[in-house]
Design goal:
Blueprint: E1 2-7, H1 20-27, E2 32-37, E3 50-52, E4 60-62, H2 64-77, E5 82-92, H3 95-101, E6 106-110, H4 119-124, E7 128-131, H5 141-152, E8 185-186, E9 189-190, H6 200-218, H7 220-229
Parallel strand pairs: 1-2, 1-6, 5-6, 5-7
Antiparallel strand pairs: 3-4, 8-9
This protein binds S-adenosyl-L-homocysteine.
């Protein structure tokens, strides 16, 4: 997979891809992440990419030309499965989207700033608009990092234990069960006996029940989907 992130702050996005699971995925050649500086496509002397909003009002708007030049340049080099714009009014990211996007080959993510981007870019270039939650960030970079991380960890070969992504929360419309590690007794706080029993079938059954209880209590919306699926 190749992810091209178009941003006016590439430095903001360097660190998330230089550590842990994402770094390993890049080092293994499973994913390539490119940070593209939108200012390189500005035709202005000052490399500016924003201008006043038509109709007045507070806040600047990202201009069409640099973004269109950048997207057209990238599109001339390869075909993109998705050109994503990060936006609070987009579809809210969920595990289903991540699962589907983890099978794609080329993804472009455009990070907005200021009041957002000229609407005509959204109409003519963007294939998917994604929000990471009902709150407003100052820029799309953190959202792009969240989207990339949640997709990349699902690509086969990225996680060491192949099955571990499948038992995470939201897969099968269930939250993950509680987990424990040593010591089995910390000042009288004990790990449930069943987990120390060595009886795999019973442990699996206990975990499944815990997942169901947890989902029922914490996320009745997801529990409804789980019940419908059963
Ligand atoms: N005026 C816009 C917010 C602009 S915030 C509005 O009220 O909807 C600046 C940029 O940050 C946006 O263009 C977008 O790219 C990014 N951003 C902000 N909140 C986000 C969110 N919840 N999810 C994804 N991207 C977000």
């Amino acid at each position: 997979m190749r992810i091209d992130i178009v941003t006016i702050h590439p430095q903001l996005l360097e660190s998330p891809f230089q550590h842990s699971i994402l770094k390993r995925a890049i080092d293994k050649g499973i994913v390539e992440v490119n940070l593209i500086n939108l200012r390189d496509y500005s035709t202005h002397k000052q490399k500016s990419v924003d201008d006043y909003a038509f109709g007045g009002g507070a806040g600047m708007v990202m201009m069409i030309e640099p973004i269109a030049n950048c997207i057209n340049d990238l599109k001339s080099k390869r075909e993109y499965d998705e050109i994503i714009y990060t936006s609070p009014d987009g579809e809210q990211l969920n595990q289903g989207h991540c699962n589907r996007m983890s099978t794609l080959k080329n993804i472009m993510i455009l990070c907005g700033h200021y009041k957002g981007i000229d609407e005509r870019i959204r109409e003519h270039f963007i294939t998917r608009e994604i929000s990471i939650g009902d709150y407003v960030l100052s820029g799309g970079e953190l959202a792009a990092a969240v989207i990339s991380d949640s997709i990349i960890r699902l690509i086969p070969g990225v996680l060491n234990d192949e099955t571990s992504a499948l038992t995470d929360s939201f897969q099968d419309n269930l939250l993950a069960p509680p987990v424990y590690t040593r010591p089995a007794d910390y000042n009288g706080w004990k790990v449930p006996d069943i987990l120390l029993s060595g009886h795999t079938a019973n442990i699996d059954k206990w975990r499944h029940e815990q997942s169901i209880d947890r989902t029922k209590q914490r996320r009745p919306d997801i529990y409804k989907k789980f019940k419908g699926e059963e």
